[in-house]
Amino acid sequence: xxxxxxxxxxxxxxxxxxxxxxxxxxxxxxxxxxxxxxxxxxxxxxxxxxxxxxxxxxxxxxxxxxxxxxxxxxxxxxxxxxxxxxxxxxxxxxxxxxxxxxxxxxxxxxxxxxxxxxxxxxxxxxxxxxxxxxxxxxxxxxxxxxxxxxxxxxxxxxxxxxxxxxxxxxxxxxxxxxxxxxxxxxxxxxxxx
Length: 193
Fold this sequence. Notes:
Number of strands: 8
CATH superfamily: PAS domain
Radius of gyration: 16 Å
Distance between the termini: 25 Å
Order of helices and strands: EEHHHHHHEEHEEEE
């Protein structure tokens, strides 16, 4: 269950979406701090903002059928030899930026991906399992909530690394207008907080 906590500060309302588990989670405070500091800094990179703005212009008229078709294509490409949609996304300057941020994090970030206003991947550091995030809380509890939203995913054990991880997501805003234009999610190795 998800709820919204509203804080009034300096005549503005900050919408902070936190999953119910996070209230009692020992990692909620450092994850929220990470979201409001480092992740917001990453989200304001000019290369990332430009990529999302360009994709928003391209995808603005997409209907549910087009989104579903792209998501199916992505999922099929994950295990295929030919990956035109995945390669185009991973080959962008914005994806190279996120891959660099992940590499420079010394293992703190296990993945980073950003979406457009529809929840479609616009840039990512590694391949995600799907292309459309719009049906998931990481998108709906950030982009739809507003500029200051933070969503914390559940703490999960990564079987391959035997480390506990969580995803933290925020809304990406246009620096000129403050309006939401997409979202960004980072997988975080909790042992490195």
